[in-house]
Every structure is written in C-alpha cells, then in structure tokens.
Amino acid sequence: MQTYVVLMILLVIGGTILDVVHKRSAKYFFENSKKAEKNARRTVSSGQKVGLAVQTVVGEVLTSSEFSHKGEEQRRISHLLTMYGFIVFVLATAVLIFSHPTEASAGIWPLLWHLGALSLAVGGYWFWFFIRVDVSAEGNPWYRVVRADLFILSLLAMATFGLLWSIFQGTTIGWLFFGLFVGGSTTLFGTVLWSKFAHMFFKPAAAYQKKITEADGSQENLPDVGDLTDPALQARYPDIPEYMGTNPPNMGAGITREPPRHY
C-alpha cells in the first residue's frame, strides 16, 4: 500500500503539471502579474503582501469566505465538511500506512480516518443531491452525470466504499468494497487533468493575485472606481445615488433576493 500511496502522489503531481501546461495557467498568472506591476498606481510593500497572503489563506482557503454571501450558507458548510474531511482522511491514511501498519499502535488515527471519511461523505452527498447548480437551479435530475462530475463522484466513491470496507472488513463483500475503494481513489488521483482536483491549487493563487491588484490599484486593467460613498466621487458621477442609492455597497439583496429556481 505504501507503493500505491506514492504512486497516487506522483499521479497528482504529474496531472497538475500537465494541467498547468495544457491550460497555460502558470503563463497566465505570470503575464497577468507583470501586467499588473506595469499598471500599478501604488506600491505594495513586502509586509502588505504577507498580510494579503495570510488573508487569502485564512479567508479563501481555511474558511471558504467566497461562500459568505446571503443564500450560500449551506454551500459553505458543505464545502468545509468536504474539504476538511478530505484533508483529515488523506492525512490519516498516510499516517496509518507509513507509520502505524498495525492497528494496536495506531492510537487515534483510525478514529480520525473514519471521521474524515464521514465528513467527506456528508459534505459531498449534501452537495450532490441539493446544492449542485444544475440540480438546485436548473432543474436537472440528480442522477444526470457529465464529465465535470468526475471529481465529486470519485471523491464520494472513495469515502463511501472506504467506510463500507471498514464495516465489512474481513468478509467477501468487504474485499469487494475494498476494490471499489481503491478504484475510486485511483480515479480521483489519476484524473487530475480532467477533473477539478487541480482547481484547489489555482484558486488560492488567483484570489491572492486579485488582492494584490486591488492593493496596487492596477485592478486587472479595470478602472479604480474608489469608494462609491465618497461625496467627491458622487459629485463627479451624480448618477451613482440615482441608480445605486445612498449606500452603494449595500444596495440590497439583488440576485440573492430569492433562489434561482425559475425552471
């Protein structure tokens, strides 16, 4: 199993590199960064950059703050359950395989393995049946499967069959579940190029770069509008209060006023 885990790690690394080459993500980030530096209106110090990096890690990575808007509470909880379940599950798997091959010496790690798998399954199934856009907003049946679902389905297969294997371990059906567990894991880690797995590496980088462009004023080549509540800005653009109200940053519920379920 140690060889298998190492192979999965290599598949993730290789798949991520191929994804970067195929989508030219690294080239995009590099060119965008250079363009932002050229168009910067302000200088961002090293301390500010570190602070923005910490904000990105705490906000976008650790707490999924991108789902903090009204109406996205369930999506955020589901995402956090899935993310932390996956991290704990994978970490516990690695520790058990490489450091505690016998259950007697494993300590708390088997419990963490099960809790991680359970959290992953709860968050994943919650997303699959109730939160997916094509199900919750577009009215498609939950069993409709497209290639974009490869990531979540292999993730769910890994967690589900892993738990079932643990329950029926030592029996004939237990070996069947073990085979399906390995199959789900292999699909998850071996299809990085075609799934959203590599997305978890690019998303924080994109969020950090956006914070940098906002801090240095380059704004990704968009106008640096400034504070919409500033009287001087409103005097320059008198239609701001007319179209956006007296408190532009808080115009109201907008598109979050009701769920998009008009199919």
Helix and strand topology:
Elements: H1 2-23, H2 25-39, H3 46-62, H4 73-98, H5 109-131, H6 133-136, H7 150-167, H8 172-190, H9 199-216, H10 231-236, H11 239-244
Helix pairs in contact: 1-8, 2-9, 3-9, 4-5, 5-7, 7-8
What does this structure look like?
This protein has 263 residues and is mainly α. The protein has one domain. It is built from eleven helices and no strands. The chain has helices at residues 2-23, 25-39, 46-62, 73-98, 109-131, 133-136, 150-167, 172-190, 199-216, 231-236, 239-244. The longest helix is centred in the N-terminal third of the chain and has 26 residues, at 73-98.
Task: Pick out its properties.
mainly alpha; elongated; 263 residues
What's the SSE pattern? HHHHHHHHHHH
Portion of residues within helices = 55-70%
Rg (C-alpha, Å): 23 Å
Class based on secondary structure composition and strand pairing: mainly alpha
- The tally of domains stands at 1
Distance between the termini: 48 Å
Summarize the structure.
66% of the residues lie in helices and 0% in strands.
